[in-house]
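Please produce the structure of this protein holding magnesium ion.
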Amino acid sequence: MLEVTGLRVAYGGIQAVRSITFHVNEGEMVALIGANGAGKTSTLKAIARVLDAAGGDVHFCGEDITRLAPHHIVRRGIALVPEGRGVFPRLTVAENLAMGAFLRHDKPEMAADLDKIYGYFPRLKERAAQLAGTLSGGEQQMLAIGRALMSRPKMLLLDEPSMGLAPIMVQKIFEVVRTVAAEGMTTLLIEQNAKLALEVSQRGYVMESGEITLTGESASLLDDPKVRAAYLGE
Ligand SMILES: Nc1ncnc2c1ncn2[C@@H]1O[C@H](COP(=O)(O)OP(=O)(O)OP(=O)(O)O)[C@@H](O)[C@H]1O
Ligand SMILES: [Mg+2]
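Below is the modeled complex.
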Protein backbone atom coordinates (compact mmCIF):
# COMPACT_ATOMS: atom_id res chain seq x y z
CA MET A 1 0.00 0.00 0.00
CA LEU A 2 2.88 2.34 0.89
CA GLU A 3 6.11 1.97 -0.97
CA VAL A 4 9.08 4.14 -0.07
CA THR A 5 12.11 3.86 -2.37
CA GLY A 6 15.50 5.47 -1.84
CA LEU A 7 13.98 8.25 0.26
CA ARG A 8 16.38 10.98 1.32
CA VAL A 9 15.79 13.96 3.60
CA ALA A 10 18.34 16.71 4.20
CA TYR A 11 18.36 19.86 6.30
CA GLY A 12 20.80 22.20 4.62
CA GLY A 13 23.94 20.11 4.36
CA ILE A 14 22.86 17.59 6.97
CA GLN A 15 21.61 14.24 5.68
CA ALA A 16 18.92 13.10 8.13
CA VAL A 17 17.59 10.22 5.99
CA ARG A 18 20.03 8.48 3.65
CA SER A 19 18.22 6.61 0.93
CA ILE A 20 15.87 4.29 2.78
CA THR A 21 13.58 1.72 1.19
CA PHE A 22 10.66 0.06 2.94
CA HIS A 23 7.02 -0.78 2.46
CA VAL A 24 3.79 -1.30 4.34
CA ASN A 25 1.22 -3.80 3.05
CA GLU A 26 -2.50 -3.19 3.25
CA GLY A 27 -3.88 -4.06 6.69
CA GLU A 28 -0.45 -4.36 8.20
CA MET A 29 1.05 -2.58 11.20
CA VAL A 30 4.73 -1.87 10.64
CA ALA A 31 7.06 -0.40 13.25
CA LEU A 32 9.94 1.93 12.50
CA ILE A 33 12.18 2.03 15.53
CA GLY A 34 15.45 3.73 16.33
CA ALA A 35 17.25 6.02 18.74
CA ASN A 36 16.89 9.81 19.07
CA GLY A 37 17.89 11.54 15.88
CA ALA A 38 17.83 8.37 13.74
CA GLY A 39 15.59 10.12 11.20
CA LYS A 40 12.21 8.56 12.02
CA THR A 41 10.22 11.78 12.21
CA SER A 42 11.94 13.14 9.11
CA THR A 43 10.86 10.00 7.23
CA LEU A 44 7.26 10.41 8.33
CA LYS A 45 7.24 14.11 7.50
CA ALA A 46 8.54 13.42 4.01
CA ILE A 47 5.81 10.82 3.45
CA ALA A 48 3.11 13.19 4.71
CA ARG A 49 4.70 15.97 2.61
CA VAL A 50 5.17 18.23 5.59
CA LEU A 51 8.66 18.58 4.14
CA ASP A 52 10.27 17.95 0.76
CA ALA A 53 12.27 14.82 0.10
CA ALA A 54 15.79 15.41 -1.21
CA GLY A 55 15.52 12.27 -3.30
CA GLY A 56 13.71 8.99 -3.81
CA ASP A 57 10.01 8.43 -4.14
CA VAL A 58 6.89 7.48 -2.26
CA HIS A 59 4.02 5.52 -3.78
CA PHE A 60 0.66 5.10 -2.08
CA CYS A 61 -1.94 2.72 -3.50
CA GLY A 62 0.08 2.64 -6.72
CA GLU A 63 0.20 6.42 -7.13
CA ASP A 64 3.37 8.50 -6.97
CA ILE A 65 2.70 10.94 -4.12
CA THR A 66 6.28 12.17 -3.74
CA ARG A 67 5.45 15.72 -4.79
CA LEU A 68 1.79 16.08 -3.88
CA ALA A 69 0.72 19.02 -1.71
CA PRO A 70 0.07 18.07 1.93
CA HIS A 71 -3.70 18.58 1.67
CA HIS A 72 -3.78 16.12 -1.21
CA ILE A 73 -2.04 13.58 1.00
CA VAL A 74 -4.95 13.89 3.43
CA ARG A 75 -7.39 13.47 0.54
CA ARG A 76 -5.60 10.32 -0.56
CA GLY A 77 -6.37 8.88 2.88
CA ILE A 78 -3.13 9.25 4.82
CA ALA A 79 -3.52 10.63 8.34
CA LEU A 80 -0.47 11.76 10.29
CA VAL A 81 -0.52 11.90 14.07
CA PRO A 82 2.53 14.09 14.60
CA GLU A 83 5.13 13.97 17.32
CA GLY A 84 3.95 16.40 20.00
CA ARG A 85 0.34 15.72 18.93
CA GLY A 86 -0.47 19.04 17.20
CA VAL A 87 -4.00 19.47 18.53
CA PHE A 88 -5.60 22.91 18.18
CA PRO A 89 -5.21 24.24 21.74
CA ARG A 90 -7.92 26.91 21.56
CA LEU A 91 -10.55 24.60 20.13
CA THR A 92 -12.54 22.19 22.25
CA VAL A 93 -12.12 18.44 22.10
CA ALA A 94 -15.30 18.15 20.02
CA GLU A 95 -14.15 20.91 17.66
CA ASN A 96 -10.76 19.24 17.21
CA LEU A 97 -12.48 15.99 16.31
CA ALA A 98 -14.75 17.81 13.85
CA MET A 99 -11.65 19.33 12.22
CA GLY A 100 -10.44 15.82 11.51
CA ALA A 101 -13.53 15.27 9.38
CA PHE A 102 -13.34 18.55 7.46
CA LEU A 103 -13.13 16.82 4.09
CA ARG A 104 -16.12 14.57 4.73
CA HIS A 105 -19.74 15.20 3.88
CA ASP A 106 -21.26 11.95 5.10
CA LYS A 107 -22.88 13.36 8.24
CA PRO A 108 -24.53 10.18 9.56
CA GLU A 109 -21.35 8.16 9.22
CA MET A 110 -19.33 10.95 10.79
CA ALA A 111 -21.62 10.82 13.80
CA ALA A 112 -21.13 7.05 13.98
CA ASP A 113 -17.35 7.47 13.79
CA LEU A 114 -17.46 10.08 16.53
CA ASP A 115 -19.38 7.64 18.74
CA LYS A 116 -16.80 4.99 17.98
CA ILE A 117 -13.92 7.29 18.93
CA TYR A 118 -15.67 8.29 22.13
CA GLY A 119 -16.04 4.57 22.75
CA TYR A 120 -12.30 4.05 22.31
CA PHE A 121 -11.51 7.03 24.53
CA PRO A 122 -14.34 7.69 27.02
CA ARG A 123 -12.12 10.37 28.55
CA LEU A 124 -12.56 12.46 25.40
CA LYS A 125 -16.31 12.19 25.62
CA GLU A 126 -16.29 13.40 29.22
CA ARG A 127 -14.15 16.32 28.12
CA ALA A 128 -15.83 17.12 24.80
CA ALA A 129 -16.35 20.78 25.73
CA GLN A 130 -12.90 21.32 27.26
CA LEU A 131 -10.25 23.34 25.41
CA ALA A 132 -7.69 20.96 23.94
CA GLY A 133 -4.81 23.10 25.24
CA THR A 134 -5.86 22.31 28.80
CA LEU A 135 -5.86 18.53 28.34
CA SER A 136 -3.11 16.40 29.87
CA GLY A 137 -0.43 15.06 27.57
CA GLY A 138 -2.06 11.65 27.41
CA GLU A 139 -5.48 13.12 26.69
CA GLN A 140 -3.97 15.22 23.90
CA GLN A 141 -2.46 12.07 22.42
CA MET A 142 -5.89 10.43 22.52
CA LEU A 143 -7.36 13.48 20.84
CA ALA A 144 -4.69 13.53 18.13
CA ILE A 145 -5.40 9.88 17.31
CA GLY A 146 -9.14 10.46 17.46
CA ARG A 147 -8.85 13.44 15.13
CA ALA A 148 -6.83 11.40 12.64
CA LEU A 149 -9.42 8.61 12.73
CA MET A 150 -12.21 11.12 12.08
CA SER A 151 -10.81 11.58 8.57
CA ARG A 152 -11.51 7.87 7.99
CA PRO A 153 -8.00 7.31 6.65
CA LYS A 154 -6.77 4.36 4.64
CA MET A 155 -3.51 4.59 6.50
CA LEU A 156 -2.38 5.97 9.85
CA LEU A 157 1.10 7.38 10.47
CA LEU A 158 1.81 7.50 14.21
CA ASP A 159 4.85 9.39 15.47
CA GLU A 160 5.81 8.23 18.97
CA PRO A 161 2.39 8.00 20.58
CA SER A 162 4.01 6.86 23.84
CA MET A 163 6.28 9.89 24.16
CA GLY A 164 6.34 11.43 27.61
CA LEU A 165 3.41 9.40 28.93
CA ALA A 166 3.05 7.36 32.10
CA PRO A 167 2.90 3.56 31.59
CA ILE A 168 -0.81 3.36 32.36
CA MET A 169 -1.61 6.00 29.73
CA VAL A 170 0.68 4.30 27.21
CA GLN A 171 -1.22 1.08 27.86
CA LYS A 172 -4.58 2.75 27.25
CA ILE A 173 -3.43 4.36 24.03
CA PHE A 174 -1.83 1.20 22.70
CA GLU A 175 -4.96 -0.78 23.49
CA VAL A 176 -6.78 1.47 21.04
CA VAL A 177 -3.94 1.34 18.50
CA ARG A 178 -4.17 -2.46 18.65
CA THR A 179 -7.95 -2.40 18.29
CA VAL A 180 -7.85 -0.06 15.32
CA ALA A 181 -5.18 -2.21 13.69
CA ALA A 182 -7.16 -5.38 14.38
CA GLU A 183 -10.09 -3.76 12.58
CA GLY A 184 -7.84 -3.59 9.52
CA MET A 185 -6.22 -0.16 9.63
CA THR A 186 -2.90 0.00 7.80
CA THR A 187 -0.46 1.62 10.23
CA LEU A 188 3.11 2.85 10.24
CA LEU A 189 4.14 3.20 13.87
CA ILE A 190 7.22 5.14 14.85
CA GLU A 191 8.49 4.48 18.32
CA GLN A 192 11.52 4.83 20.50
CA ASN A 193 9.89 2.31 22.78
CA ALA A 194 11.09 -0.62 20.69
CA LYS A 195 9.62 -3.33 22.89
CA LEU A 196 6.14 -1.91 22.75
CA ALA A 197 6.31 -1.19 19.03
CA LEU A 198 7.55 -4.68 18.18
CA GLU A 199 4.93 -6.28 20.40
CA VAL A 200 2.02 -4.65 18.56
CA SER A 201 3.34 -4.73 14.99
CA GLN A 202 3.77 -7.54 12.45
CA ARG A 203 7.00 -6.30 10.88
CA GLY A 204 9.64 -3.81 11.84
CA TYR A 205 12.49 -1.73 10.49
CA VAL A 206 15.38 -0.51 12.61
CA MET A 207 16.76 2.90 11.71
CA GLU A 208 20.21 4.16 12.69
CA SER A 209 21.78 7.46 11.63
CA GLY A 210 19.42 7.88 8.71
CA GLU A 211 19.65 4.32 7.40
CA ILE A 212 17.66 1.14 7.80
CA THR A 213 20.04 -1.38 9.31
CA LEU A 214 17.76 -4.26 10.15
CA THR A 215 14.35 -5.53 9.16
CA GLY A 216 12.18 -8.55 9.76
CA GLU A 217 9.12 -9.90 11.48
CA SER A 218 8.60 -8.05 14.73
CA ALA A 219 8.71 -11.26 16.76
CA SER A 220 12.14 -12.16 15.40
CA LEU A 221 13.44 -8.62 15.85
CA LEU A 222 12.36 -8.86 19.48
CA ASP A 223 14.59 -11.94 19.78
CA ASP A 224 17.49 -10.45 17.82
CA PRO A 225 20.55 -10.02 20.08
CA LYS A 226 21.53 -6.74 18.37
CA VAL A 227 18.06 -5.30 18.90
CA ARG A 228 17.98 -6.55 22.46
CA ALA A 229 21.34 -4.98 23.21
CA ALA A 230 20.73 -1.66 21.48
CA TYR A 231 17.05 -1.02 22.10
CA LEU A 232 15.79 -3.23 24.88
CA GLY A 233 18.57 -2.45 27.32
CA GLU A 234 19.84 -6.00 27.65
N1 LIG B 1 14.25 21.23 11.03
C1 LIG B 1 15.44 20.69 11.16
N2 LIG B 1 16.56 21.38 10.87
C2 LIG B 1 17.79 20.82 10.98
N3 LIG B 1 18.00 19.56 11.37
C3 LIG B 1 16.93 18.82 11.69
C4 LIG B 1 15.60 19.35 11.61
N4 LIG B 1 14.75 18.38 11.99
C5 LIG B 1 15.50 17.30 12.30
N5 LIG B 1 16.80 17.56 12.12
C6 LIG B 1 17.92 16.64 12.35
O1 LIG B 1 17.70 15.47 11.59
C7 LIG B 1 18.07 14.31 12.31
C8 LIG B 1 16.92 13.34 12.40
O2 LIG B 1 15.88 13.92 13.18
P1 LIG B 1 14.45 13.24 13.37
O3 LIG B 1 13.60 14.19 14.09
O4 LIG B 1 13.99 12.74 12.07
O5 LIG B 1 14.85 12.00 14.29
P2 LIG B 1 13.94 10.98 15.12
O6 LIG B 1 14.41 9.63 14.76
O7 LIG B 1 12.51 11.30 14.91
O8 LIG B 1 14.38 11.29 16.61
P3 LIG B 1 13.49 11.30 17.97
O9 LIG B 1 13.34 9.88 18.38
O10 LIG B 1 14.35 12.07 18.93
O11 LIG B 1 12.19 11.97 17.68
C9 LIG B 1 18.57 14.80 13.67
O12 LIG B 1 19.95 14.85 13.65
C10 LIG B 1 17.97 16.19 13.78
O13 LIG B 1 18.78 17.06 14.54
MG1 LIG C 1 11.02 11.88 16.16
